[in-house]
């Protein structure tokens, strides 16, 4: 399996060989996850908690972890409005991210932002990335969010060739994402998942939900056929009767003119 940056929405996953039906092509733990501690907790609060977790890994983690975040997490797509209104809010947000480093030097979030390795602008972008790419999960009646960076390279189709399932492993205390093919896949074929599996929304509401959540409208064959079906229905229900009515009116007027002559 190859994950290539490029094409629609700057991502795409392609099969580097033929893949049979039901084959697992991806199984990975959540890179970052948070399960809410109350039903009243908002998505914004959960995103900020996960943002601090990822940023803490960036500040205090190994060089490999820093590289992973910069090249895997920070390159993901994002959208929406900033979680911070002032730059001072950004520094206040990370002031409690600290730990003793080598030779007694204190590592902390504010100094890391000032070092130039990771700017305050990057930190403002991070919660937007997490919100945009999150997977909503539930465990024991508690809602939460997970981040699986490698899975974000899949593009969407309403009738995909790959199905994604997310389960909680109680022994490891972590959510895992599994991706399996739902039909045979040819070499070089792009692998798609359904961003909204199991939805039964009408076309108009589905398009609106996709636009609001991910910023695009689906153009897969199924959605195009739905659009054609809607246009056909409009033609049959509205335009045909209207055309017949106008034709009858025109015939009636023509007959009246002929009688007048």
TrEMBL record:
Family matches, as CDD domains: SET_SMYD (cd20071)
InterPro entries according to UniProt: H3K4_H4K5_MeTrfase, SET_dom, SET_dom_sf
Cytoplasm is among the record's keywords: no
Entry keyword set: Membrane, Transmembrane, Transmembrane helix
Ranges of residues in domain SET: 1-196
Any one Gene Ontology cellular component term annotated for this protein: nucleus
Transmembrane annotation, as ranges: 227-246
Descriptive protein name: SET domain-containing protein
Originating species: Trypanosoma cruzi
């Amino acid at each position: 399996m190859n994950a290539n940056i490029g094409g629609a929405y700057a991502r795409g996953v392609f099969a580097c060989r033929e893949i049979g039906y039901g084959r697992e092509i991806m199984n990975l733990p959540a890179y970052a996850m948070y399960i809410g501690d109350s039903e009243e907790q908002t998505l914004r609060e959960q995103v900020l908690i996960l943002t601090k977790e990822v940023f803490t890994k960036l500040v205090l983690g190994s060089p490999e972890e820093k590289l992973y975040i910069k090249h895997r997490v920070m390159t993901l797509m994002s959208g929406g409005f900033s979680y911070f209104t002032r730059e001072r809010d950004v520094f206040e947000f990370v002031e409690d991210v600290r730990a003793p480093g080598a030779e007694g030097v204190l590592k902390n979030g504010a100094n890391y932002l000032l070092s130039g390795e990771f700017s305050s602008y990057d930190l403002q972008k991070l919660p937007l990335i997490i919100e945009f790419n999150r997977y909503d999960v539930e465990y024991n009646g508690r809602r939460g969010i997970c981040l699986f960076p490698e899975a974000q390279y899949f593009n969407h189709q309403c009738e995909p060739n790959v199905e994604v399932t997310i389960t909680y492993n109680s022994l490891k205390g972590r959510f895992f994402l599994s991706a399996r093919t739902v039909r045979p896949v040819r070499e070089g074929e792009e692998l798609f998942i359904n961003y909204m599996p199991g939805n039964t929304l009408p076309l108009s509401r589905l398009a609106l939900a996709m636009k609001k959540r991910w910023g695009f409208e689906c153009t897969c064959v199924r959605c195009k056929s739905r659009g054609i079906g809607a246009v056909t229905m409009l033609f049959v229900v509205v335009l045909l009767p209207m055309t017949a009515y106008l034709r009858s009116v025109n015939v009636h007027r023509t007959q009246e003119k002929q009688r007048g002559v």
